[in-house]
Structures are given as C-alpha cells and as structure tokens.
Amino acid sequence: MGGSQRQRVLGIKRVSDNVYEVLLEDDSGKRYTVHVKVEGDILETPYGSYYLQDISRIETVGEARGGRSVLGVSWAIDFDSSSGIFKAKLSLKIIDVKVGRGSRVARDDTLLLFETMKMVGELKSPCEGIVEEVFVKPGEGVKSGSQLLKLKCK
Amino acid sequence: MTILLIANRGEVVVRVAKTARELGWKIATIYEPDDRQSPHIRVGDIAVEVDSYTSIDSVVEAALRVGADIVHPGYGFLSENPEFAKKLLDLGISWAGPSPEKMRLLGDKIEARRLAEQAGVPVLPWCEALDVGDALRCAEDIGYPVVVKASNTGGGRGQRIARNGEELVKAFQLVALEARGWGKPRIFVEKFVENARHVEVQILADRYGSVVHLYERECSVQRRRQKIVEEAPSPLTARRKKLRSELLDYALKLSEYAGYDGIGTLEFIYDPKSDQFYFIEANTRLQVEHGVTEMVTGVDIVKHQLLTGLEKPLSLRQSEITVRGWAVEARVYAEKVLSDFAPAEGVVTKLRMPSGPWLRVDSIVEEGYHVNPKYDTLLAKIIAWGSDRLEAVKRLEIALKETVIGGVETNLDLLRELLASEEFVKADYHTLFLEKTLDRIRRKISEKLQILKEIVSRINMPQLLHMKTPNVRLQGIRWRTYGWLAASTRSRY
C-alpha cells in the first residue's frame, strides 16, 4: 500500500441514514473529523463527489509502484520487468529505433522514438541491460497492447 | 433559410449549434465512420459521413451535399487551414473565420512575429533555424534558456524548452519530428521567459476594417503547455491599468496593421523581469476558452464569428464593450493524472453535472458516452461567474466538487486541488506553475483517494453488494455493523 499516506482513518461512525462521520489522524497526531454522505450511488465528501463504483477501483500511485511488476516507463508504454517486454499502452507510430538485437544499453539510453496524439516521445531504458529482441520497425504503426522490445536487465 | 455545417466533433459543436439555433438556422454535422455514435451529431438536423475530420476534400463535399451556406470549423482539425477556407469560398460557401490570406499571414508563427515587429509590437528575441547548427548559434546569441518552436503547429505541440546545448540538439530534433503533422515545418528559437504569464486578447473584426477587442483572458495554468484553467479578466492586468491598456493597444495595433478580418485571439507572454508583454502567436479561430470572455462581456463571440463570416459588418463598437465581474473556467478531460496525463478510455457510466446560478457548462458528455482516446478527450468546460475573482473561484470549486463523471478517469481531482490551492486563490502563478506543483498535488490526490477507498471499504452500503466490479479487494470483506471501528483492525482490509 502507499507509503506516503499522511492521514489515517481511525474510525467511522454513522450519524444518520446516509451520513458518516470519519475520524482521521495525520502524521503529527492531530485528529479531525470529516462527514461523507451517500446519495444513491454517489459518495459526497469534502474533497468532491465520486461514483461509488469508481472508488473501489482506484489504484493509487503507491500501489501501482509497489504491488506490481509492470512499470509505466512512459505515459504511452509499459514495461514488464519479469518478461522484459515493452508494450504499447496506446496506438503508436514508431518513428525511430535506436537499438538492435544484442545492443548493450545503459539506464536512460533512448531505445526508440514514437509518436502519439501528435506528440513525440522517447522510450528510455529503465535499466542497464541487453536488447534481446526488437519487434518493430521505424515507420510502423502499432496498436495498443503490441509488443515493442524485449530487454534483459542486468 | 441559412444552412450551417459545423465541421467538428465534441463540445464545440454543441456550443456553435446553440447560437445557430438562436439565429434560426439549419444545422448540419459530420462524422467519421467509426464516430457515428458521438452525441455531437444529434444537435444537428442532418449528419453526413466524412472520410476524416481533417480531409479537406471530404468535408468540402459534405458541405456541398447539405447545401451549406456557411461552414464553422470549430477548433482543431481544419480550423486553421487556409486551403480549406479557400476551397469553400471558391465554391461560394461562406467561412466562419478570417479570410484565407489573413489566416496564412497570422497563422504562421514566424510570419506573424515579423508582422508584429513591423507594427511596433514587442516580441521576444528570436531567430529562425534551418538546422541544428543555426539553432545552436541562435541560442548562444540570445542566451539560454530558450524555446524551440515550429512555425505551424498548434495545441502546445511542437515546442520544447532547452536549457543548454545538449538539450537544444534534442529539442530541435523532436520539434522537427512533431511538426511534420502540420506540413512543411519551419523552426525557430525564442528566448524562454521564467515565471512567465500567458495573457491573450480576444479580437472581433469584420471584412470592412472594424476591429474591437473583448479585453483579455489569462491562461497561465497549463499542463504540457496545454491550458486547463482560464479566467477573464487577467488577475495580473486587472490590477494594473497601464499594463492592461498597453496590452490591449498592442493587440489592436497588430490586428489593424495586419488588416485582420474575423474573430481571433492574440497571445502574449508577460515577463515579470522586464514588466512587459511580448506577442507570441495568433489564433485565427474560436478558442476553447472563449466562454470566460462571453461571461464577463455578455458578447456572443460565436454569433459575431458567424455573422462576420457571412460578410455582415461588425455590429459592436468598442465603447459598448465592458467587463463585468469575473469568470473562471476549468476544462474536464478524460485522462490519467497519476500516470503522466495519458488519455483515458472508457464509457461514462454515471454523470452528474453541476447546475445552479452563476454556472455555465459546455459539455459533450452523457451517460453511455464512449471516450475515444483517438480524439481530444475534453469532456466539458465548467465556468463560474462571480462579481469578483474570489467569488467566481469559490463557485467553481463548489461546482467541481458536485460534478461526478463515473466509469472513466478524469482530471476532476486535479482541478479541485488546483482551485483550492493557495497559489491559485492568490493568482500567484505562472506557465510552469502546474508542472512545479504537480508532485505535491498528485500526492494529495493519492492520499485522498486512499482515504476514500478505505472509508468506502468500511461502511456497509447495500449499493456495493450489487456492484459488478472486477475489483477483488472489496470481495471477501466481512461486512461490519456500524459504529466505531478500532484502528487496529484496519490492516485486515
């Protein structure tokens, strides 16, 4: 779970049919209460209103980093550290591939250039390692979920 | 009966259609083959399929098919394409924009900058760069940091900041690549202003030489050089009479010198060091944020755009235009704020838009709306008016808290945090403000969501039992009776 959480929920009390009082404590030990209200399938809070179904689906930054092996190395590309595969998260156009099979790369070396939403982005190596496979060519358009590269980290 | 073709998709179609209905016109819309479900089609009387929203031939053909008298291009797509405008005009179809010559003249950032220099309007030190060597020499001359820009791109694309030679080489290559989508790129290097503010002036002009301004907007709150919160007037110039009249004078001077003949916006950068405005670029079309100006001036910008497009003379005099109160706009996008603003995809399964006094909501979204990340993911613009800035900001903050867009990730939490931030409330911001505070804001959002998630998991709600959600964390929870739950049991959840 997220490591940066500063407030903790100490308790929840139902104060009326659909209103709950939540007791919170922050890092300094200061306690305070907030009220949340359930309106049908909407949760109204001092922070804003939310669709209840969405809240349970929320994945916070801490969880995404700590709990899983898939890293978002770029806003458009995911890296699965166990298989070493880079996958497109969106439809992309590959502009240039800077490495080939067997290339040795250092951390932050540019592996390829891609374009999406009319923006050009760079895919940088998340580690020092060896490129085991390149699945794409410059000029190629790839769909969301397509494999781009395989990298073996040292 | 006048027939208007709105050559766009999304909320701008709904906006333009409102004015066209008021004028008693018929409305035609267009759609790409895989976009025929988009709600923008339903605001019109007839819809025509086109190959693509950016295919000139196909959209012109659609205009001919519906017998359009006039075409409104919206923003994005073909809205700044002079060839498109010219083709329509050559066929006797009016164009809700300036003449193609003026679009060409002001739409090119390099040409517009030359024009501003001739008109005596200040611009930042700059030079055109044909290759990387030019760019390096130029940056040495004017001094780092610099911005590398392409002359012909829009929407914040094709510009990158470089703080040294190494960054400049990279920036030059990336900008050149990005600019290809807009035709032949010409690249230039411009001095980068630290702590800059982005203020722009709305212009209305006609084909007969009349030009008026509708005062200014400030759009300094940007992410990736794209605006997300805008306001009118500018908190910077509203307090400084002389500075404001300088800005407005520059805008009128440049419009008149260029012989500008439609509605448009002139964008300026304010450098706090020199206490001076510099012209950066012109937008020869309607802007996303035009609504804040409409709220404080009471002027229907789209109406003037349509009527001047039909070659009617401008019916407004400068003396008739005043600013009343304050308006602030927040743009709601479907995007993943916590994962680098990647566009979000999905179906809106729950919708509650804010309503009430002092609000304006320009929206395309409805329950069942499919957010397609192939297109711009702007869902809605929420605008609040107040008699002063603080009132408007507060009203917008409340409206954003009421808003629920379920089923797809949005930037609502980011907007809520922003509006409530001390910097925003004090208008103590600049164009990189959001980027600099983003980590802090993301952390706050993350913390809040974590708390909400925990609250939801700990209160007994029958609604949740009926949820069809793939989430595993909620399954297997032992539903508890109400009352205080000891903190020590928390870890089990």
Structure characterization notes:
The complex is a heterodimer of chains A (154) and B (493). Chain A has 2 helices and 15 strands. Chain A has 154 residues and is mainly beta. Chain A folds into 2 domains: 8-64, no CATH class; 69-153, RNA polymerase II/Efflux pump adaptor protein, barrel-sandwich hybrid domain (OB fold (Dihydrolipoamide Acetyltransferase, E2P), Beta Barrel). Chain B is α+β, with helices and mostly antiparallel strands. Chain B folds into 3 domains: 3-96, Rossmann fold (3-Layer(aba) Sandwich), CATH 3.40.50.20; 125-191, 2-Layer Sandwich (Dna Ligase, domain 1), CATH 3.30.1490; 197-444, 2-Layer Sandwich (D-amino Acid Aminotransferase, Chain A, domain 1), CATH 3.30.470.20. In chain B, 35% of the residues lie in helices and 24% in strands. Chain B has helices at residues 11-22, 56-65, 82-90, 100-107, 109-119, 132-142, 165-179, 235-238, 241-258, 290-297, 301-309, 389-402, 412-420, 422-426, 433-458, 462-465; strands spanning 3-6, 26-31, 46-49, 70-72, 94-95, 126-129, 146-150, 159-162, 187-191, 197-205, 211-223, 226-232, 263-271, 276-283, 326-333, 335-336, 342-343, 346-347, 350-352, 359-363, 370-371, 378-386, 404-406. An 8-stranded antiparallel sheet of chain B has the order 14-13-10-11-12-15-22-20, sandwiched between helices. A 5-stranded parallel sheet of chain B has the order 3-2-1-4-5, with helices on both faces. In chain B, helix 3 runs antiparallel to helix 4 and helix 13 (412-420) packs across helix 15. Chain B starts with a strand and ends in a 28-residue tail after the last helix. The interface between A and B is large, with 55 and 62 residues.
